[in-house]
Design a protein that fits this description.
single chain; about 425 residues; alpha+beta; nine-stranded mixed sheet; about 35% helix
Length: about 425
Amino acid sequence: MPLSLDLSPLLAQLEALGAIGAEGPGRGRTRLALTDAERAGRDQLVAWMRELDLIVEVDQLGNIFGSLPAATAEGDREPLMMGSHIDTVRHAGALDGCYGVLAGLAVQRAYRAAGIAPARRLVVAAFTNEEGVRYQPDMMGSLVYAGGLAVDDALASIGTDGSRLGDELARLGYAGEAPCGFLKPWAFLELHIEQGPVLEAAGVRLGLVRGVQGISWQRITLQGEANHAGTAPMAFRHDAGYGAAATVAFLREQITKAAPGTTLATVGSLSLEPDVINVVPERATFTVDLRDPDEGQLAAAEAKLDHFLETLAGEEGLTVHKARLVRFAPVVFHAGLRKRIQGAAEALGVAPLELTSGAGHDAQMMARIAPSAMIFVPSIQGISHNPEEATDPEDLALGAEVLLRVVEDCLALPLGAAP
Ligand SMILES: [Zn+2]
């Protein structure tokens, strides 16, 4: 007899967690990583884990793990991990991250209700600082867990408010003792809202995530020379503002419109100095955000931009300084797990849509150390990172149901087998 997923505790917990850090009507909730509001969310999550009689462990970066032990010691050595994050951006919705964590608890609850000890240890993880609002980089907890960043470097991070991450972790009582990476997952599954409009537009209720696009962030400074807007002839100018504007136009015309058209480029921050109407700008500082699901295309876009800046600097008499802020290669999720998700969805009468995630997620970090995959449910009007973020409860139910079926499918495999 298949296990059954009880939807009402999942919806009730989403609402209760969503009330923590609430900012008032229409203003969502704010639980930035390692603030007092986020601690209240952590405390609530840990209380729910204890209600299910899970083994609760916290690692050195404050990542929280709730484990339902396996029937055998061998099964404990091959944990199947689900999870996401419970920190938020400012004025957030209630679903981003929290849905994946609480749906994991719903799966564990199904096993508890049936009185079944799973063949593999079932773990739910809530990773620290996924959003990266207060401390950078984002997806920090899972990145450190997967060995991509040293714990000490992460603990030494200084926040936008001048706080040190390690101090805040200790202050909140979440500086755990387990070494990061202490549970090596046999597989990792993340259920998440899409945070984009693709599923809704296609009229499909479930997304099978093929992978996560790569991301390249740079801060570029062009240094020119300030001069009088009325007396300096055009040919004598070293106009950093012109250089910045030319770069924005280059990104649009030569990179994002070039075949095959998967590259995205954004200059989201731009400032000029001295920022005065009648002075030729001496300095322009701007960011470049490049994304592509294909590493070759992403690297090609970066190389084209480098070449463009070099040529521009020569022609305009500017100097260029580039600082790399973030660089993550694209991730393709595990083919075997994707097939299991496809099968689970089809068994429930739903043909999932395969899509690439435009946003970063903890699963892309966990993919470094374990077979990993993601399931998406639609976001109404594609809205996320916004108090209006919403998903039809029936779709929330479907996503959790598919997660449970994939877990059952995985647990039916013999120990030692690959997912
Ligand atoms: Zn998220």
